[in-house]
Amino acid sequence: AAAVPAAVYMLQDQEAHAAEMERTFIAIKPDGVQRGLISEIVSRFERKGYKLVAIKLIVPSKEFAQKHYHDLKDRPFFNGLCDFLSSGPVLAMVWEGEGVIKYGRKLIGATDPQKSEPGTIRGDLAVVVGRNIIHGSDGLETAKDEIALWFEPKELVSYTSNVEKWVYG
Ligand code: ADP
Question: What pTM did the predictor assign?
């Protein structure tokens, strides 16, 4: 058989990776922004090897916060949570990478910082559940819904990062 040029294998690898790429919605809540933790948190996702494809600073309205947390509308803390999310700037982001939805949640740590492992964002940087500094989508469908709620399609930037071949091989 004729030798297949290395470039073709590379293209096939890249296509395989592209098929596995996921996007997740990550937000630094008002407490994380006020405490000056933006660069610390962004840096953890960036250094891991994930790709930032959308980012903006926004103060959500209470109605918007209620939409974002609609799944929790019957919980006793729902009202306070929505007041809190709409109390100041939120850094809304979309991160892309293989397995980023599930592993992003690992980087974030358990919902209650008292139970988050050291080394996780909440474990290292937060103390109580009502001020746990960061949100991350918990599944594929939620990620799609949350990205669509927070961003216009044109705000999502598709681009090739030159380090991808070093992150994925
Ligand atoms: P996660 O943010 O880890 O996905 P949930 O979806 O269960 O967790 O809850 C959403 C947010 O609601 C939490 O991040 C936290 O800010 C808040 N929250 C959850 N449980 C409580 C609670 N018992 N008291 C106050 N706030 C809570």
Answer: 0.92
